[in-house]
Amino acid sequence: MAATEFRCEVKGFKHLTPSVFEVTFDTQQPLEFSAGQFISVIIPGAGPHGRDLRRAYSIASAPHVRPVELCVKLVEDGPGTHHLYRLRPGDTFRGMAPYGDFVYEPKPGSHACFIATGTGIAPFRSMVFSAEFKKNPPISATCLLGVSDVSELLYTNEMESLQGITWVPTVSRPTGEWRGFKGRVTDYLRAQEAGFPWLETEYYLCGNGAMIDEIKLLLAQKGVAKGSVHQEVYYKPPKELK
Ligand SMILES: Cc1cc2nc3c(=O)[nH]c(=O)nc-3n(C[C@H](O)[C@H](O)[C@H](O)COP(=O)(O)OP(=O)(O)OC[C@H]3O[C@@H](n4cnc5c(N)ncnc54)[C@H](O)[C@@H]3O)c2cc1C
Predict the structure, then answer these.
(1) CB of 115 within 8 A of CB of 205?
(2) How far is the CA of 104 from the centre of ligand 1 (A)?
(3) Do 32 and 87 have their domain in common?
(4) Cβ 72 under 6 angstroms from ligand 1
(5) pTM of the complete model
(6) Last residue of a domain, one of 74, 99, 124
């Protein structure tokens, strides 16, 4: 599918957490995409010399779901996220879609492990609720979501109740009560016993580039083939924050 420009009409806006919001939209022309792909939102006039900027957002809903859902972290002084944050039902924005090859690739006889930080959960939500995933499920699927505080967890209820997925939220610095795994997604994976099917699993990594680098290193140490590791880097934090 070649990407084309869409006029997107906003249908809904709500906060999912204090710093993450959801924007839902419909398009006049049919927007077809594969679970895991993204839309490149056009931010009018926000670039140098008044040029348009573009920012990528993974589609967080499955391909058959309308309106389409985006899940966006509000970034301080970020032109893209602030543009989307101001949108309300009835407003419109422009976007080019679909883009990306970070899609679920069924591999017979394999397990799947989806590993996200923050809004990196968006493409996995689209994948695990897609017809493609239901038609070609892995032997088992685990979905890890790493955040620093409990208040930042996303989609917990629906992911917990989804059949065929083991949902593992990890919280690195919980401020209140937290009975789940305390630590980062990398710590969780490192803590897996020898029986973990390291070499029979397809790994999908999305979000913070530092997490992705760490997980890739761990998987290489376990002997996982590069071809079994799929990634979508949202951003690279400055080195001192790693
Ligand atoms: C393929 C792809 C898909 C993406 N999908 C999503 C998505 O579904 N939801 C989403 O929120 N973002 C997503 N992003 C990130 C998004 O494209 C923007 O980079 C982000 O929204 C910041 O844009 P901005 O213009 O507001 O700020 P900018 O001025 O471009 O960014 C400022 C700084 O914010 C930091 N930053 C960027 N993204 C994040 C984030 N998600 N969490 C914490 N810090 C961040 C970076 O350090 C960046 O340098 C995706 C990126 C890519 C490449």
Answers:
(1) yes
(2) 22
(3) yes
(4) yes
(5) 0.96
(6) 99
